[in-house]
Amino acid sequence: MKMHPLTLRILHWINAGAMVVMIMSGWKIYNDEVLFGILHFPEAITLGVWAQHGLQWHFAFMWVLTINGLVYLLYGAFSGRFRRLLWPIRAREVVVEVIRALTFRLRHDDLTHYNAVQKLLYAGVIAVIVVQVVSGLAIWKPVQFASLVALFGDFQGARLAHFLGMTAICLFMAVHVTLALLVPRTILAMLTGGPRLAVSPVTPPASAGALDHVPDADLEPAALPPPVRREPAAAQDEAAGIPMPSGHHRLPGPHDDLQSTDVAAPDGPDPSAHRCDPASGRQLTDRSS
User: pTM higher than 0.90, yes or no?
Assistant: First the structure.
């Protein structure tokens, strides 16, 4: 997948064109009823012959920008693009990148990652456009959207917020274009899609049904290790160097082979040769000897 998929590129250029039309027609509307007496926009950069022409252009592209912008937000949120490219934003990185940009030392070697200035600008302009839509609805239908007008205090407050939002968007576009000119590859990337993203392959887990296609030979259990032969306990003691006291004979253990292990009789006279009569206490003599 490329850095800028085709869907995103289409949404981007529609947003850019609609924004230019909205700004130029908005300047024409502003000139008809100014907020600041000393500020008038040159007719050469406005859109429409009269103010009503500017209103028609403005209302037409208002819906284009709103619908296209909504699709762009949904695409960025559900595709994970916003999370991948715009987060996190660190203040220290922003300061460093601003200094580099002002001294024309801004570097952007990896197009697949946005620097801190880009992150701040893109996240900020998204928030400004949301405010523009809300304030624009309040100006367009102040009676029907009285609750939106109340968010800005009154009608003139909504006009002022709309004007300041337009100013912020113009500043964003100026910085955005300047940064793009400093790194021309970013413009080409938005036209062609840019470099391909490195996606690490993920091996899906095997399902239970997948075992049905495995040959029987592959399902045979692994060979068991050979049984461990246990030596008799006496042999183990002898191998360990444990001496047996004189006159003592070790009884067979649980691992001894009783059929092959001989237990010798203790040394000394045969107790059967010295039997006594329990009644008289006299010694009995074995008649068989």
Answer: no
